Amino acid sequence: MSVDDVDDRGNVIVVNITDTKTYKPKTFTIINGSNSIPAIDVFRKYRKLRPESILHKRLFINYPKQKCTVQAVGINTISKFPEKIARFLCLPNPEEYTGHSFRRSSATLLADSGADLAVVKRHGGWRSNSVVEGYIEDSLNNKIEISRKIINHSATIIQKESTSNSEASTSASSTSVSNQNINLPINDRYGVHFSSLSNCNIYFK
Length: 205
Description:
Elements: E1 6-8, E2 13-17, E3 26-30, H1 39-48, H2 75-79, H3 81-88, H4 100-112, H5 117-124, H6 129-137, H7 140-175
Helix pairs in contact: 4-5
């Protein structure tokens, strides 16, 4: 990547990548997001450190001892960055993090944001849907949403069953009497009719 591939437009930096893994030129943008690291400002600071004596146009140059040199950063050095980041974060098996981790991480973050298959596919330049579907299926937010739907559906079923049982209990209690003494005024003027009685003791006085 050369300095000519980066276009600073003020509130956005447009980066053109001509040599890609999929052999298809890509363009992406850099903006200052809501996190604590202003990406645009970091890039501009890095660009100002570039020595005027550099004859080549390679964008990334070595930065030993807090000073830029004229030597360009090689592809093997860049591919080691994910492993260094993993070691800094004390992640398990840091040696398994390769240059492809950048590509995989961006797709995972995009899927976690709720992007659909077409958006993730276009971002990564994939021709096959199967790879993209894997990122979406493994999306943490997608799994959380699935769990939320399962829990909410289960809660609805439990609530309906509870309501149904409560209504049945209320109906039963309104038509049955247990462990109570009921005094009925039985005489010539009253006719008393009993039905559907069980386990009852009736005394006439």
